[in-house]
Each structure stands twice: as structure tokens, then as C-alpha cells.
Amino acid sequence: MESIGFLAAVAITTILSCVYSTRYDGDELLEVLVKGDAQMDAFNETLQHFQNRISVWQPPVASTGAGHVHVENEDKDEFKDRLKTAKIPFRVLIRDVQENIDNERMSNPSEGIALPWDDGAAEGGRRNRRRWRRRRADAVPSNGSIVGKYATYGEIREWLYDLERRFPDLAEVKVIGKTFQGRDLLLLKIGNRTTTATTLRPGIWVDAGTHAREWITVSSAIYIISQILTNFWTANEDVSLIGNVDWYIVPLVNPDGYAHTQAINGTRLWRKNRSVYNTSYSTFYNLSCRGTDINRNFGFHWREIGAGTDPCLETYSGPWAMSENETRAIADFLSGHDAAVRGYVTIHSYGQLFMVRWAYSLDAPPIPEFNRTIAVASEAVRAINASSGIEYRAGTSPQLLYEFGGGSGDWVRANTAIRHAYDVELRDRGDFGFLLPANYVLPVGEEIWQAVKVVASHVLEDYPPIETTTTTTRTSHNTATTTNTPVFFKRGRCSVLVYLLFLVLF
Q: Which of 239, 253, 246, 167 is nearest to 210 (CA)?
């Protein structure tokens, strides 16, 4: 009986391994050029013929007709024949998807780059040297940098809490929700916590990792965190900008899906979260039919366009609007901080785009602040190009990409006081797609950091901070001392005085 039980266990393990393991040997990524309604109809019919075996990385966009399609090895010859019959031009971008995945994993370093507070290379400049040394003396030893690598969920969690211990006057980790599989949805708030409660600084929200396979977005959010804290640490010229903002950063919106893409028996190109609903699709033998596309689940023009009703589709919008834990956590937090958060940047990949509202329709009435936000987006694009030479484009999603409803950016603009709401698509344009080697992590992170600073500068221009003249500083012994407001928090004082004078006179 024991031998039978052992064999049964082996059989079950083997079955599960076959079900969960996903390899992409010989799979190709094709770029197609779909022009006109007739070709689009033929393209959609071809996709339907192959059911869910074809993964559309980028749908054909209206401006150029170009789209990117991941085709399995056993289907690629027939798929190409059908494209030829429909007279749809195509070319191969990636000849072996699995080879790219293997290269991506092999390029990923075991540790991130050393940061100033890790190696003692900088002590915060002459003005702040003593203050930072005092903090370092009581700091918890670093768990290791994850900047410059593709980190795991566990590494990200550990690093965020390490930052909170290292920078008690700046960083605070908040758990804003739980995922379907029970992981914490973590937000890091960065801002001078020594100021009194009457200090009001505009907040900027940055999130990444909504789609599990977009690893470069997660590493870029981590890079942004490192740059904000490095600016505080070294007191360089950017601190006057960064210090006047409260930063709300969720580096990983979709922990369950992300963990699945990194699991030994996982699926590297998984997009959705990992929730399961009691539907006829979600069976033991069809485990691809689980999960919801978080960026199609928000309750604004939900399921009207660009979203799937079939749980097996990568763009499945969920059984109802706001059904997902991650969606509700973000919406609840932003709704509860409606007066604090003034800027919103959600980071995706890929395509090299910086987009403003709206996403749900090309014919939607323009937002009142369209000219303002498109100017900010254009400036952010120029900052990226000046930083790296890489060209991004500014516009709306229907202009540059496609129409879709249920997106987070549209929901934020429609349901909160946030007017600076931007969607970003990072590198590249298809050479690697979602599979950027790890040597891209730092340059891509630097690009988006330059763009985010542009957004921050304009948010500050529209919403200057209002502060008091005293601060309460916590020391390592939990004693309080009163000091003058730091120089880098004095920006906007004139605006405050003018405002108060206006109230007195009128």
C-alpha cells in the first residue's frame, strides 16, 4: 500500500508539473502590419482560429497598424500561411522566445548595486553629514540592495522594510491590501516625517508591476525609490524638488502574478493576477483560465472596450467591476487620500510612450487640463531623450496604442481630485518586448526617474506646499527637539503668504 501511495504521489506531482510548467522553445514573436478593416477582420479571424494559443503582446495600433504576436512553435507555420493568405505583412522580431527568457535569467545579478547608505560612500554632504551618521549608527544592517536587478517579491518586501528601519524620519511601509493568495500589497511612503501635522505637501503616486510579466516596471519603481532616498542622503540639487513632495510608491501591484512568473514551474509571460472564480472555465485542467487583468477591472467604462469577457483571455476584466483585491486596495487608498495625492504615474511596458487621458475612447471629450498635461508629458519625453537618447512619444492611448476601458489612470482622473494622471510604457519597441535583459534595468530606471521629476515639478507648481515654521525631530533615543524648517521645505512660502493675505483682506 505504501508503494502504491508513493507512486500516486509521484504521478500527481508529475501531472501538476506538466500543468504548471511553461516553456517557449521555438516560439516566435512576429510583428504584423494590419491595414484597413478587411485585414483587421482577417487578423481577428486568425486569432480566433487558434483560440488562446496566440498571445498578443501589442495589438495592431491605429496609427501604424503594427502589432506584436507571440506564436507557439507548433502553430507558427500555419499562422504565417494564414497571414500570407490575408496579405498581412509580417516579420520575425524574436526567433526563440525561450532563448530570450533564458538569457534574461542568466543576465540577472544575484545582488543589486551598492547604494550610498550601504557602502558608506556618501554621508549626505557637509550640511547633513552628522545627521546621517547619527542615523547610520542605529540603523539595522542592510539586507542587500535590489537596485539594478529583477528582484523577487520576498526580496522587495525585505528591502522596503529595511528602508523603513534605516530612514525612520523619511520612509514608512503601509500594507494597503491583501492579494488573492494572501500576499501583502505594499506601499512605501517617503516624505519628511519630522514636520508637524499642519505641513501640507502634494503627494505623487507611482505604481508598477500591474501586469506580472512586465518585470522592467518593477525594477524601475525600485530605482525611483533609491533615487529619492539618495537625494535626501546626499542633499544634492534635486532635494529642493523631492523634499517638497510626499511620495506614495507601490513597486508591485500584482505580487501573485509576479511571483508566478518567477516560479520554477511558473509561467514567465503570465499577465493577470491569480484569482479564481467559480466559473466553468476555471477547471483543474485549464489553469490558464484563472486571473483577472487588473488594468481592465477598474470601475470606469468597465468592459466597454479593449477587455475580455472570457476568463481564459489575457485581458479578462473580471466578473464585475472592482472585483479584485488589488483594484479595491488602490481605489480605497486613493479615495481616502484624495486631498493629499496630486499626481499619478502608473508604469507599464512596453512601447516607449507617455500618455494622458482618456484611454477609453478616441472620441471622448478632452479633459479640461488636456493642454496642461500633454505639455507635461511632452516635457517628460524630452527629459528622457536628453538623458538616454531614447525616443518616447506623448499622447493618449487611443492615439498611440489602443482604446481600453477599466484602466486605473482613467478611473483616477474620473473619481479623484488628481489632475496629473499619466500612463507610461517603458522600453522597448519589440526587440526584447517583455524580456529585457537585466543590463537594461538601470538605464530604463534612470529614464523614467527623469520623467517623474518633470511630473513632480509641475505638480509642485500647481500645488505648492503649505508648511509651518517648526518641526519636531525624532532622535534615536525618541526624544523630541524643535528646529527651524529645513531650507529645502521653504519653497512655496510666498504663495502661502499671498493666500493668507487674500483671506485677511477679502
A: 253
- How far is residue 228's CA from residue 230's CA, in Å, rounded to a whole number? 5
Which of 31, 155, 164, 425 is an active site residue?
425
CB neighbour list of residue 131: distance below 8 Å, 6 or more residues apart? 124
Give the integer Cα–Cα distance in Å for 71 and 269. Answer: 13
Identify residue 400 by its one-letter amino acid code. Answer: L
Could you tell me which residues come within 8 angstroms of residue 331 by beta carbon, excluding any fewer than 6 positions away?
298, 299, 322, 411, 415
Judge whether residue 125 has pLDDT over 60: no
Q: Which three cell numbers stand for residue 82?
A: 494564414
Place of cell 477599466: 406
- Whether this prediction's pTM lies above 0.90 is answered by no
> Are the beta carbons of 25 and 95 closer than 8 angstroms?
no
For residue 45, the tally of other CB atoms under 10 A from its CB is: 11
> Is 104 assigned a catalytic role?
no
Crossing angle of the two packed helices 255-262 and 153-166, in degrees rounded to 10: 120
C-beta separation of 300 from 410 below 8 A: yes
| Rounded Cα–Cα distance for residues 292 and 311 (Å) | 7
> How far apart (Å, rounded) are the C-alpha atoms in residues 441 and 249?
18
Q: What is the DSSP string of 132-179?
A: HHHHHHHPPPP----TTS---HHHHHHHHHHHHHH-TTTEEEEEEEE-
Question: If phi over 0 gives left and psi between -120 and 50 gives alpha, with beta otherwise, what is residue 20?
Answer: alpha
Give the three cell numbers for residue 283: 477547471
Query: Which sign does the torsion angle of CA 24, 30, 36, 42 carry?
Result: negative
Q: Bridge-partner residues for 178, per DSSP? A: 184
Write the pLDDT tens digit of every residue in 452-503. 999 999 999 999 988 655 444 433 323 333 333 333 233 333 443 434 443 4
Place of cell 487620500: 337
* Strands 420-426 and 341-349, bridge-based pairing: parallel
CA atoms within 13 A on the CB side of 376: 29
Please state, as a whole number, how many other Cβ atoms lie within 10 Å of the Cβ of residue 311.
Answer: 23
